[in-house]
Amino acid sequence: MKSVEYRDLGCMAYGECWQLQRTLFDGMLNRKEDESQSAGTILFVEHPAVYTLGKSGHQENMLISEEYLKQLGAEFYHIDRGGDITFHGPGQIVGYPILDLEAIGIGLRDYIDTLEE
């Protein structure tokens, strides 16, 4: 049976966590089918104040300047995922699933529906 690893990263800067996610994803893509019993990893993390803008987002939806964000001690990232402006900050636990849905035996639509439930 394939397993999913859960990692509690504590508090980690967004950029460092984003790099870890890409490394895990690339590793999953490059492994051989029988090489691993892992179906992926779910990361749990808290970030210092950060705003992200996804590839389908619009810069004009960010209502404050990057300079003002810096004054507040917040970071700003353009990311390669969907979504618009998203805030993550202290006290908020974020989950990042990096999963091989085929290995788990669930299709994308069913996975999304399950998350929404």
Concise summary:
This protein has helices at 14-30, 66-72, 101-104, 108-116, and strands at residues 3-11, 38-46, 50-53, 75-78, 85-88, 94-99.
Q: What features would you describe in this structure?
A:
- The protein is α/β, with parallel strands linked by helices and 117 residues long.
- Helix content is 32%, strand content 31%.
- The strands form two sheets. A three-stranded mixed β-sheet has the order 1-2-6.
- The model has no long low-confidence stretch (mean pLDDT 89).
Helical content (DSSP H or I, runs of 4+): 25-40%
Question: DSSP helix count?
Answer: 4
- Rg to the nearest angstrom? 16 Å
Subunit organisation of the chains: single chain
- The global form is elongated
Task: Write the topology of this structure.
Layout (H helix, E strand, L loop, with lengths): L2 E9 L2 H17 L7 E9 L3 E4 L12 H7 L2 E4 L6 E4 L5 E6 L1 H4 L3 H9 L1
Parallel strand pairs: 1-2, 3-4
Antiparallel strand pairs: 2-6, 3-5
Please describe the structure with a list of short key phrases separated by commas or semicolons:
three-stranded mixed sheet, 117 residues, alpha/beta
